[in-house]
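Let's do one together. I've listed all components of the complex below, 872 residues spread over two lines.
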Amino acid sequence: MAVYNLSLNGKKVKVDVEPDMPLLWVIRDFADLKGTKFGCGMALCGACTIHLNGQPARSCQTPVSSVGKNDKITTIEGIGESKMSIIQNAWIEEQVPQCGYCQSGQIMSAAALLKSNPSPTDADIDAAMSGNLCRCGTYDRIRKAIHRASEQMKVTEKGIGQR
Amino acid sequence: MKAAGFTSLGLAVGISGFTKDASLKKIAPAVLKLEINPFIIIDTTSNITLVNPRPDMGQGSTQAVPSLLAEELEVSLEKVLIVQSDGMGKYGSQTSGGSSSVRELWMPIRKAGAAAREMLTTTAAKRWNLPASECIAEDGKIWHKASGKSLSYGELADDASKLEIPKEPKLKDPKDFKIIGKYNKRLDVPERVTGKAVYGLDVDVPGMVYAAIVHSPMIHGKIASIDDSETKKVKGVLQVIKTERTMPHRTSDAVAVVATNWWAALKGKRALKVNWDNGNYAKTVDTASYFAATYEAAKKEGVNFEEKGDFTVKYANAKDKIESHYETPFLAHAPIEPENAVVHVKEDGSVEIWAPIQGPDWALRDVCGYLKVKPEQVKINVTLLGGAFGRKAYHDFLLEACHISRELKKPVKVIWTREDDITQGPYRPGMLSHMQGFVEEGKITGFHHHAIGESIVGQVFKGLKEDEADPWLSEEISTGNNKYQFATASKVSWTNVKTDIPVVWWRSVYASNFGWGQECFVDELAHLAKKDPLKARLEILPDERFKKVLETLAEKANWDEKLPAGSGKGIAVFKSFGSISACCITVSKKDTGVKIDKVVSVIDCGYYVNPDNVKAQTEGNIVMGITAAIKDGITFTNGICDQSNYHQFNVMRINEAPPMEIHIVDSGAVPGGVGEPGLPPIAPALGNAIFAATGKRLRKLPFDINNIA
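Okay, and this is what the predicted structure of the assembly comes out as:
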């Protein structure tokens, strides 16, 4: 066991776990944030997607020992702050989820995409989102929600700019 | 989703015979008289609670069921708090399966709502000393129209509960519906996009330990020896115990690695060495030999399910006839949330369960049978389900948790790995459709579907006799259900080819198998008759609803449009779970394969609650149907599953999802299912489109869409 100081959703979190424990289980069972999901354990499904310093990462393949105390970890619970809630609202407007289990990961990947590419094309969405499986088959709506969020972000930013 | 306990009770309307629950006995006398299944509670603060007897696995039952109540009770959806039923018999059938949520609850819940509305109206009228005809229910209150005065449901609940429950309350005229049939956002979506929704995997209980399970690689192998020396070195591992995987038809050996956290349990599982005595399973848990047996069976007559005219003789004498074999693979459900359950078998013998299960009623029956306890000793808390597709109505994972908790006398959380999910089953059975048919004077007049394979009914319920055709064919390929009229002769027959591979229902059950054979073969016969596949179908489908669905599809998918060479459209129509769905897929040649350009689906599901959810479910069926056609099947070679995780059991990803369009036919018929009926026509529409574009007739699923040789 070893003690790790983590920066999780802007808060300092101290855990005492095995160095090889994936961040997924640290977040879920030691920091008690259950929004990040387990799906495959092999980085194949994307249900465990989080942000590590703003970049999407598969937490099931990220050992806690590889994360430094200054590395910023963001989960679905932390993404709603600031403009990222625009994405969650787009998900609501398009009524994306069915079972919803994969959607934390979908939203984390979409947030990273929109941050680096505010106006993604369908091809950009395919490239950024194909690591996230949805067995319910909500892909058509995920695509629409990303386009909607993209539009909404432009409106919001323009609004701020004009003030 | 809001949840409420049963505390302040006023009026309740529900099922007969629930007097044992202490918290509910106050309202029991009123309840005993109205024989409707689920029930509602209106408390003195106007809170309305609905006990929802359909777990939500993504199909939207947490919106659909309360909508039926809110409509009749004249309240908005937000006013209805939902608790999931716990499996007790008083709630009747509680399994999300067979696309049953709306079609089974349509009348009982509406009647319950209408009965409550009438009782509240009567109570208000009495209190005002006015005729009830001058009072109306609206927005959670009873109003006196002329004076504008009102009383809330909460103010009326206590007195209303003393009235006799009307047996035949007046239901609203559908033309007055405000919620049913209208677009409404699902109230459970915000929690599902913020990480707040609680699935089975998210349940924590004080004092809980975690277990990972080592299953038999050949599914039914017996443990010869266990070496847990390396496992016990893993920090956090508490215990290694023998456990068992109890399936409906048989029980297999297994080993549980119990730890303080699941990562430790998983590491311990990986370090465990088990020698298995595999008996003859290398031969009997094998898909190649299974399918070889189905093709052998196709050479012989099966057991007749139904026959009209003497098909065998007519076929023998027919001039223009063809014969084909259509194969569908075993498939895993592979919901993204793997199987998991938290169970606490307590010292006093009582049991509490938290699990993502499709049917608490079935689970209660299984748990009581397994642990030899009474239903009153068991408390089942149904969580949200992170996908299920049939898998989570099979309780092997739940009974494992029961076994381990009983051994340890502690709450235990069992989590299956993805590898457990994919390599252990149960699976949709692979099936063979042996098809024969003929045409006379340009019309399809003879049709035989010989369905061959392992019976779900037989294996799961241990109930199929040698000379009995699987009764579930009635929901799938019978002419009574699918309405094709073959003028000369038709036949549906069955041969049960058994396997030791565990099987179970998978989204749309046999329809997902037999739709492929039926609808591709109708297409083959249409070509034999030199007819347009749509027109050939219309000729033999006199049923008005089927006709309307196909005509709507033809219009929406622009069926008659001239396509360039190398492109083609295919159609298929199938009725399952009370709804008719048809699909048109357009493909075009691309390199060595084809590309799906567009999918148009039409569904007539009778009355529906939320058109957007009908569309969402149909979209899901398109994705799952195409996945089943062109992605991976499950195969076993010498007893071992050849797939283990999503890299070998690939499912469709967003970059492969084609443009899709859904249309609903408003027939006003009694409600049919929505969660499954969209799936069966997908694969055959694709196969037929590929034939139209390339001339290549595909008969075996899955196929590689990028390599249509």
